[in-house]
Amino acid sequence: MATITTSTPTEPAALGVIRKIASSFLLRRLAKALFSIWLVTSITFFVIRAMPGNAVDVLIQELTTQGVSPEDARNQAAALMNIDLDKPLPVQYLDYLGNVVRGDLGSSYKSAGLGVSDMIAQVLPWTLFSVGLALLITFVLGVALGAIMAYRRDTWIDHLLSNIAATLDAISPYLIGLLAILLFGITWKWVPIMEMRGAMSPGIKPAFTLEFLADIFMHVRVLLLVYVLSSIGSWMLQMKSNTVATLGEDYVTVARARGLTDGRILTAYVGRNATLPLFTRLAISVGFIVGGSVLLETLFTYRGVGFLLARSISERDYPVMQGVFLIITASVVVSNLLADYLYGWLDPRVRIAGGDN
Amino acid sequence: MQAIGDFLSGLWRESVKTLKILSRNKMGLFGFILIVLIVLLSFVGPFIWPPETSANVTEINQGASAQHWLGTDFQGQDNLRKIINGGKDIVLIAVITGVLSMLIAVVVGSFSAFVGGWVDSLLMELVNIWLTIPKFPLLAVLATVLALKDVVTLSVLMAVLEWPALARQVRSQVLSLKNRDYVEAAVMLDLGTPRIIFRELLPNMMSFVAISTIFAMTHAIYQQTGLVFLGIVPYSSANWGVMISAAERRGVLFNPQAAWSILAPMAAIVIFQLALVSFARSLDEVFNPRLRTSV
Description:
The complex is a heterodimer of chains A (357) and B (295). In chain A, 77% of the residues lie in helices and 0% in strands. Chain A is built from 16 helices and no strands. Chain A has a domain at 118-274. Chain A has helices at residues 2-7, 11-23, 25-50, 55-65, 70-81, 89-101, 116-151, 156-170, 173-187, 210-247, 250-257, 262-275, 278-299, 305-314, 318-346, 348-353. Chain A is an all-alpha fold and 357 residues long. Chain B has 295 residues and is mostly helical. Chain B folds into 2 domains: 14-51 and 76-86 and 239-295, no CATH class; 92-236, no CATH class. Chain B has helices at 2-22, 26-48, 79-85, 87-115, 117-131, 135-146, 151-178, 181-188, 193-201, 206-229, 240-249, 259-287. In chain B, helix 2 (26-48) packs across helix 3, helix 4 packs parallel to helix 7 (151-178) and helix 10 runs parallel beside helix 11 (240-249). In chain B, 45% of the residues are buried. Chains A and B meet through helix 3, helix 8, helix 9, helix 13 and helix 14 of A and helix 5, helix 6, helix 10 and helix 12 of B.
């Protein structure tokens, strides 16, 4: 919100703007999202550039050891990171913010000449595709299984599913991924792990053909399975407890007393109300899966954003690292924003009461 | 300080009582015994079975046998012995991160709930914003740039990133306890905020604090394993995470004979995590009157 107040000229007008933002659900959420992105942008700036022994110094040092003269090394580093090292720090910071807003994230240090924005644009679609699809599958399956658990409470199927969900929830996605490769790829040989590397096979043209779709599915399937397995547990348990709580509500009893069919009660009364709180979890889940993608995409050599971040980390390619991290954060924040809007649209009470507390 | 001392002695009494109740919950007791065993083995074990210093080229990548219960790794060293020697780091990381993040969360969360007003709103708004930032990529980037060398600084960094989520939960707990009669009485007697927080409030949310700490611990173990895999945390110490990535890097994954080297440390981590979680879940049952069945 600070960014808005500084740009408004007079005191009463500024107050008016703040009040308008604070009273509007949509604008308030938007301001929060922008603030998160700004916060992360600033953290990365100060950690990478301003701290003693920071990445820029390291970069200059590395270039010098490669035989570049100190003066040239300094200029090269400045060019790669897209900053002017002679300017005072606050000016550098503003320049950097301006560059980020324009979509200019600097150039890669290891893969010479490649723009960071272009590198990200190449891999981002694959992460959006795999994470989005995983989220959709997890949501639908988790809601269905959770509802079954609640309806068949204290039967063997509930106990079985509850235990599976609790176990999956406790094991980290990275270990599930390792296990999947080991079992499906090596021990049982169900899938060709080596051929599955990358997001698609070489020589296949991206187009809406059956061949292309089959190919990208071939590459994504095990990764998808691991995403689903690692995050479905918490969905199932949450949905179960929501459904159990909803089943005890008066309006469900009334609906039963009115003689409505079980199917109608499930879809129109129980299902909708039990699913509603899950939409707030969607936001958390996006962050969780994207966070896990750094490890899983690397494990499966799936060339998405997480893979790029891991590679830039291991190569100490700071411009790329910084840019990819920014994009990852921005996409998580934006999907949070969308989830918020979706929730506000589905449940008008949130918009009127104006808050999640 | 007096308040904290009293709180610690109260904590001890409470723990003994908890153990007594816990002995009636089978899953929880099982988890607890496993945790004690793992901690003992990790801290005492290395004195009985010190790490092997040389490679055994004649016994590389073997499966389980009478001589090597969990097989041998790519250097021909015994996997079981490596696991015994690699547990200390994992336990330390889990405990430091869990306890430290909970400590910050208790202080900030209860402060926020007690002060209320705009301070509370602002703090919680910041926490909510913090929660939307994906933590693992942030941790990976920070750990890379800061070039962390040892277990303790890594744990502190993880705790610093982890506490806001816990603080929000602590705040809502404190809010629900704040209006109880005994807390209001303590406030009216002007016993001082630290004393009220540590003597009146904290004992009443002990179950919640313990459970959240344990979940923060399992989270820390997972994050550490991930950082090792990305090559951010140095290989110098031999812990379970390092064993997994070392095996993975040596292509052991694609060598069916050597599966033991990767499965053994994985199993160690999973068993430790499951033990922690089943212990935490049973604590919930012990303390939560709505879930309590037979106590």
